[in-house]
TrEMBL record:
It is an enzyme of class 3 (hydrolase). Gene3D superfamilies: 3.40.190.80, Fructose-1,6-Bisphosphatase, subunit A, domain 1. It comes from Gordonia terrae C-6. Residues 1-76 are annotated as: Disordered. This is Inositol-1-monophosphatase. Keywords: Hydrolase, Magnesium, Metal-binding. Pfam families: Inositol_P. The keyword Transcription does not apply.
Amino acid sequence: MDELATVAHAVAQEAAAHVRRRRPELFGATPGHGEPPASGTPDTRSSTVRPVSTTSTVQPVSTKSTETDPVTLADTETERLIRSLLRRARPDDEVLGEEDGGSRAVPSGVRWVVDPIDGTVNFMYGVPAYAVSVAAQVDGRSVAGVVVDVARDVTYGATLGGGAWAADATGVRRTLRCTSVDRAELALVATGFGYDAARRRQQGRIVAELLPRVRDVRRIGAAALDLCMVAAGAVDAHYEHGLSPWDWAAGGLIAAEAGAVVQMPPPDSRADEGHITVAVAPGVADEFLALLDELDARRPLA
């Protein structure tokens, strides 16, 4: 497990550096997104990644499931980089990624579950909340995971049974623990919404009924970061319908290892099935889960 954690950390760091470098090249420099290499600094990107030139006629953004579900050149480049690094370090392992896919069936042994940029809309618009997520699963269960908050240069990590931690740019790690909140009415809750209009209507109904029952609601726009925020005590709970494994594989482990009560979708599920993901501080878990049940919110949303 230590080896898997080491690989996850190294791969996520190199991928985050690539994302940080590419954002100003694709969308222009924006304060608050980390410091790209200074002019004249050698480019240490892997030779397997060939980014499109900034003078290319290739468009930097295309779409996937809907016109509001974007993918950027940085997403596809970064996943290629991650896969190349994993092939070099762990050539016999399978990989499941958001952009290039992988087998839906859960393999025996190790599978890497990766999201090159979680929070692509934020990345495009210049909202400094997007992340690289890398997790190692064994027989469908996450055993090591790293999430890098690219703009803030904060790294979150965990191993199964080994606790959760966060580190800033200096690399000094601090142990993560959930908050001690013990009443749902005092809970700060993070959530997110899907791209399909019909599902959004259902999600809107749930959040409208939840909002008067909790402290407040936050919509960050990157599920991996939401889960890490539960671990770090920046929010008290997170729930969201329709996440895929690459959204929760690392962040869910980090939240659980920080003491959160978690409910994850099946490891072979996908966003279109609408399963709920929940991570909540232990002192309010029973009450919050009962509240979700009262709102009929723990069933899958089509």
